[in-house]
Amino acid sequence: MDGAGKTKSVVLGLFATLCFLSCICGFVVYNVINKKKRPTSANKRLHRRFGNLFLATTLLFAFSGAWHAFAKVGKSSASIQTKQASFASDDVKLDVRSLLQKLPGEKVTNVSLVRIDDENYWQVSCKKENKTERKYIHVASGKMLAQGDEQYSRSLVSALSIASHNPVKEVKLLTAFNHQYSMMNKRLPVVENRLTNGDAFYIDPATGSVAAVSNSSDAAERFSFRNLHMYHFWEMWLGKTVGSFVKNLFLIGSTLGLLAVALSGVLIYTRRIARRS
What is the third-level CATH fold of 89-222? Predict the structure, then answer.
């Protein structure tokens, strides 16, 4: 369904909504309709207790999934594009020897030309001791630019139309995921550019593209999906290795618990039918 566009989000949203309504119906049956009717057997009591427990997790899972799916339907499919600079042929004169002299002991893996605040810089990707980083060298003067990734991303965001009314007030390089920029976005490192209105643009300095956009209007939806549907909070609390293991264990346990509740419900129902016949 990846090529279905918004139809995919609608279908997934409808399935999640159906699951959510089923949970509501189950809660009403468990705790309202049959409230005065206490289970007579231990199996029925366990079925009700575990049903309420796993109903809560499924309710939150379905709610957050439906919210996320329908939120995607309402969003514009056009992504925000940064302004790509163009260069005259006279600007592209790379002296490899002098460039390498400025990077002793480092292995150059890529060189590109970028523009920062109307100045041209060589963006040099280097690897040293298994660590990759980008350095920015002024084309004319040969001077190294401090905090190049941050300066480059700020320049790209400042060129966007929204930044003309809400300038960038804070820039921060992110080398790990956090609650605002979660693992769903996949790309690291990125530079967070937070505007005066609270919106944040996450720029991938390697490509100069927008990796993600965060604004106050959909912050609640992102938090809901990230923590109630994807359970990324485990990885935030316990780290990626341990957190991922606990998250998967939690998902497997919830799935098996729901299966056990469903099978036990079918078994109780068939026994009741058999006694009546």
Answer: Nuclear Transport Factor 2; Chain: A, (3.10.450)
